[in-house]
Amino acid sequence: MEFRTIAIIAHIDHGKTTLVDGLLKQGGVFGVREEVPERVMDSNIQEKERGITIYAKNASVKYKDTKINIIDTPGHTAFGSEVERVLRAVDSVLLLVDACEGPMPQTRFVLKKSLALGLKPIVVINKVDRPNANPNETLSAVFDLFGELGANNEQLDFSYIFTDAKKGIAYRDLGDKSSDLTPLFNLILEKIKPARSGNSFPLRFQAIKLFYDNFLGRMALGKIYEGTIKIGQTVFLKKPDGSVNQETINKIFIFEGLKRKEVPLAVAGDIVMVSGLPNIYVGDTVCQERDSESLPVISIDPPTISVEFLVNDSPFSGREGKCLTIREIKNRLEKELETNIGLKVDFPTGQGKSFRVSARAEMQIEVLVEEMRREGFELQLARPQVIMKEENGKLMEPIEQVVIEAQEEYNGSIIGSLSRKKGELKNIIRKEKSTMLEFEVPTRGLLGYASEFVAVTKGQGIISHNFLEYRPYKGEILVRESGSIIADRNGRALSFSLWNLQQRGPLFVSPGDEVYEGMIIGEALKGYDVIANPMKEKNLSKRIRNKSTDKAIGLFSVPEMTLERALGFIKDDELVEITSSAIRLRKKNLKELDRKVVARASRNKNED
User: Fold this and answer.
1) Tell me: the pLDDT tens digits for 533-553?
2) Chain segment 363-410, per-residue pLDDT in tens
């Protein structure tokens, strides 16, 4: 049997997972009467909730005596490390591009990585059925992108195909008649060379992803490049630092459809999962012979932001969670590092009670924290910080390529808002019903920008961004100009008090919510922090009780506080408190705030 391994790469929402669904259904993975859920590869709970792919996952189909291993990859820039590590294990990639939107930031990122590894992609122009689709223009834009990214002559001569992934149809040419994905299957066999059959060579296997099983321990997913791997086989585990460990294989699994099947042996070209290697990490090479050459190290782009994780010491600590201590948080982060190579953690020394967690983007942190809170952890997060570096005596900062699609009437507001973030407008592309704006913006300027973007475009814009490069520091960027409304005591918020406070700015709490001293309960629009009593009651004198014209209290609705919104709101002297059932904001030091309030009151009195 021949093996071909492909990764499907694309920008978010271009139809990648939908195409995988079609390939699996038409590849005979499911029974005739079997009910198949939409986006079947997105099996993680957060993936289903967010509607995006977070983790790379693999399956396989058999077509004309060939086993095609399919790896579905994330389309969001935050999870680029998931894409980078699997590209080493594939024979080619299907580059999926929306026929309406054309190439987007993540399209550039994943294509650049593929070309650098010498892969020759097959371009799939998807959503050709849409009324505003322009497949030929999109194909031309993809060719230009290949040239811009330095593709060689062989890579520029790429094959392409058109698809309607939702209906499961592919067309070699737009005028062709087709009713399924057979043209795509045939193109894969025609243009992608089979994996090299190296069964006569000594074993060489490389791990691209790690899993943990309660019975089998750490398990490694990877590709067999040469040789045969067998149960009970003695192997040598080679680390990037040159160290070598001797291990024994005790379980081998291959993939048939979406299921894994235990087998006694597996051969070169296949994607397998093995156990019995407790010390293996992503990128390590498993060899049959000690003197075999290690496979090239899997490297990924470094993180660009960091967030400080702290032990929760708020007055509400321990009410809802079961994992509270620094040791429990440390163990959880160490476990995460075993499988997530896109994260880096600086662990505290001595009596330290915080961890510095670094990642490629805010969403990567948000997904980790959401997993932890669902597991019963309580912790606090500080404001995200951009990771700077110094080159030749100059301070350098990460820059992002930002692409925004919105109606033309919002262009002025968008350009103005990103200009204040030190963003530079690079291109304007006018479409039939919208405008596409391309910017280059410091990563600092995008921290917390999501909520501002929604306000600027009235919720009708689409924004995506991707790390571009490090450039000289662009100067100070103003963070949130508004202040915070802070509770001055513990108790339950009352309607009358909140009714008065909402005149100062939007609130984060509703009547009956428990609050504590130092907790941020709203945003003060005048630009300075306000200490307030959220439990002040209405003075129910006889005169007021009998007054028929007394107005009923009316409160604005309070939107749910999300982690994304919270991290984007807080300033350097504020924290986000995370528990299993709540996300709260608080001040780091209330005594410092008291001094500022007294000083402001004294200053205002002198001015009067």
Assistant:
1) 888 877 655 454 444 444 455
2) 888 888 888 988 899 999 999 999 999 888 899 999 988 888 888 888
The DSSP code sequence of 207-233 is: EEEEEEETTTEEEEEEEEEESEEETT-
The domain segmentation of the chain, as residue ranges, is 2-191, 204-287, 305-386, 389-472, 483-607
Q: How far is CA 492 from CA 487, 496, 513, in A?
A: 11, 12, 5
Q: What is the pTM of this model?
A: 0.79
Burial of 536: CB neighbours in 10 Å, binned 0-12, 13-18, 19+? middle
Residue 346 corresponds to which tokens in the numbers above? Answer: 């600086």
Residues 264, 230 contacting (CB under 8 angstroms): yes
pLDDT band for position 95 (cuts 50, 70, 90): very high
User: How many whole angstroms separate alpha carbon 508 and alpha carbon 559?
Assistant: 7
CATH superfamily name and code, 483-607: bipa protein (2.40.50.250)
Task: Judge contact between 575 and 381, C-beta under 8 A.
Answer: yes
| Count, residues in the chain | 608
Q: Is 226 exposed, middle or buried (0-12, 13-18, 19+ CB in 10 A)?
A: buried
DSSP string, 79-107: GHHHHHHHGGG-SEEEEEEETTT-S-HHH
- Give the whole-angstrom CA distance, residue 401 versus residue 407: 20
Contact indicator for 397, 391 with CB cutoff of 8 Å: no
